[in-house]
TrEMBL record:
Lineage, opening ranks: Eukaryota, Fungi, Dikarya, Basidiomycota, Agaricomycotina
EC category name: transferase
Keyword Metal-binding applies: yes
NCBIfam families: LysS_fung_arch
GO molecular function, one term: metal ion binding
Transmembrane stretches, start-end: none
Protein name: homocitrate synthase
Gene: LYS1_2
Keyword annotations of the record: Amino-acid biosynthesis, Lysine biosynthesis, Magnesium, Manganese, Metal-binding, Transferase
GO cellular component: mitochondrion
Cofactor(s) the protein needs: Mn(2+); Mg(2+)
Residue ranges occupied by any Pyruvate carboxyltransferase domain in the UniProt entry: 52-306
Family: Belongs to the alpha-IPM synthase/homocitrate synthase family. Homocitrate synthase LYS20/LYS21 subfamily.
Protein species of origin: Apiotrichum porosum
């Protein structure tokens, strides 16, 4: 496992590369090990985890994120990037929201995107519907709250009014020859009989999809599974789902919905939306890659994910979180010696996703007190130094001792290894002479004025590309 120099990523400080060609091969064959069936559940006849669509709502739900403000140029960039990524639908803010919202909607419809259909999201109201169908969208997503909270405090309408107006709006939109979806906002706090009854009514008059929305993020995966499975037995149309992340279940709920027969999942890039947002696009992709990698890889341009996320992060002035699915800066960084050894032997040991599938890079962090000789050996090989295993273990003991004082940068580690190697070659050092090595290292630093104590670490990590 000795990478060529061109595999060393140069724009990340303190990183050591590991051989990706081996990683890809092993990941492709045994990533799930013996438990593949446990993840995919292909036998579940209701499950759509191998056949589902994304309704990407960064330009609708995402515009409801606290710091979001998109001008047309930014919306177009995001729409084009999502289209390149391959999302099935892009949902836009209601054209009834403001004159600019309407103009943006019309402009995005005229882009002629390659793959993504354009939807807009409106209230269950004829005025909104009339404006929406004039924008050139491929479909309209209609929503109205059905829980008692929203019936009483949001719009003040009862189920009879909701049903009557929904029918009117749906028939109007259908008459324009475009897609129509009807959704019940706050579905999980709505009366089940009310819900099933209105879904059945709108299904009978020919909606393309009904929508289930966990508007306040209260649902758990079991509740989602039960509601969607029940609904699957009541309607023949597609089932769209929308999950807020207030209690951390947004991805798991989307997955449970697909297992129960839902067909569409609403996402936004980085999960941005009202409050702390909805199912993140990248997180859903990560989850679904485990369920059916081929479906996901064939359908979506996964190498685009980081670009789309960076675009949106910049537009709404946030950082991509350190622990973001797939693209977080440490999503594929392995640190502890036990992990590092196994990862270097076969990345599937500690990775369920292959970074190469997303154009990402694997790193092994080596300059810390939790390191082990196997990780150090990989760096020795990358530096083309000839040391025996016994010598590498000896040098590793020194690195660990120094890392007990402070984390060692990649430069520090390389210096230690080079000084150790030269001393061995010149016969100035033997294994098990830590005091001699200390002196040689001090002499080296003194001659170059590069004592680690005088050279503060720029970053507190020492990773190697793996
Ligand atoms: C859970 C969700 O995220 S749903 C999507 C949320 N999206 C938006 O709100 C889009 C941006 N919103 C807006 O620009 C504005 O709220 C507008 C243009 C839609 C409406 O603005 P206004 O007429 O000034 O009303 P306001 O926002 O104060 O209140 C909402 C109105 O919609 C009504 N309403 C709320 N939800 C619905 C619904 N789903 N269907 C029909 N009417 C609804 C309310 O009764 C209220 O009307 P009223 O005060 O005239 O009785
Ligand atoms: O239209 C929908 O299904 C969802 C609307 C929404 O954003 C929500 O209920 O949180
Ligand atoms: Zn929402």
């Amino acid at each position: 496992m000795c990478p060529t120099p061109d595999q060393i990523e140069t724009n990340k400080e303190d990183m050591v590369p590991v051989d990706l060609s081996t990683a890809v091969k092993s990941n492709g064959t045994d990533r799930h090990g013996d438990k593949k069936g446990f993840y995919a559940r292909p036998s579940d006849f209701l499950s759509n985890t191998s056949n589902w669509k994304i309704i990407e709502s960064t330009l609708r739900e995402g515009e409801q994120f606290a710091t979001a403000w998109f001008d047309l140029e930014t919306k177009i960039k995001i729409a084009r990037a999502l289209d390149d990524f391959g999302v099935d639908y892009i949902e836009l803010t209601s054209p009834a929201a403001s004159p600019e919202s309407r103009a943006h909607c019309e402009a995005i419809c005229k882009l002629g995107l390659k793959r993504s259909k354009i939807l807009t999201h409106i209230r269950c109201h004829m005025d909104d519907a009339r404006i929406a169908v004039e924008t050139g969208v491929d479909g309209v997503d209609v929503v109205i709250g059905t829980s008692s909270f929203l019936r009483e405090h949001s719009h003040g309408k009862d189920m009879t009014w909701i049903t009557k107006t929904a029918i009117e709006v749906i028939e109007f939109v259908k008459s324009k020859g475009i897609e129509i979806r009807f959704s019940s906002e706050d579905s999980f706090r709505s009366d089940l009989v009310d819900l099933l009854s209105i879904y059945q009514t709108v299904d009978k008059i020919g909606v393309n999809r009904v929508g289930v929305a966990d508007t306040v993020g209260c649902a758990d995966p079991r509740q989602v599974y039960e509601l969607v499975r029940t609904l699957r037995g009541v309607v023949g149309c597609d089932i769209e789902t929308h999950f807020h992340n207030d209690t951390g279940c947004a991805i798991a709920n989307a997955y449970a919905a697909l297992e129960a027969g839902a067909t569409h999942v609403d996402t936004s890039v980085l999960g941005i939306g009202e409050r702390n947002g909805i199912t993140p696009l990248g997180g859903l992709i990560a989850r679904m890659m485990v369920a059916d990698p081929e479906y996901v890889k064939n359908k979506y341009n996964l190498h685009m994910l980081r670009e789309v996320e960076n675009l949106v992060a910049e537009a709404v002035e946030i950082q991509v979180p350190f622990n973001n699915y797939i693209t977080g800066f440490c999503a594929f960084t392995h640190k502890a010696g036990i992990h590092a050894k196994a990862i270097l032997a076969n990345p599937s040991t500690y990775e369920i996703l292959n970074p190469a599938d997303f154009g990402m890079t694997r790193y092994v962090s080596i300059g810390h007190r939790l390191t082990g000789w196997n990780a150090i050996k990989s760096r020795v090989e990358q530096l083309n130094l000839e040391l025996t295993d016994e010598q590498i273990k000896d040098a590793t003991a020194k690195i660990k001792a120094l890392a007990d004082v402070r984390t060692q940068t990649m430069e520090d580690v390389d210096t230690i290894l080079r000084v150790y190697h030269t001393a061995i070659q010149q016969g100035k050092l033997k294994v098990g002479q830590p005091e001699v090595f200390d002196r040689l290292l001090d002499e080296h630093h003194a001659s170059r004025d590069t004592s680690p104590s005088r050279t503060p670490a720029k970053r507190q990590r020492t990773d190697a590309e793996a």
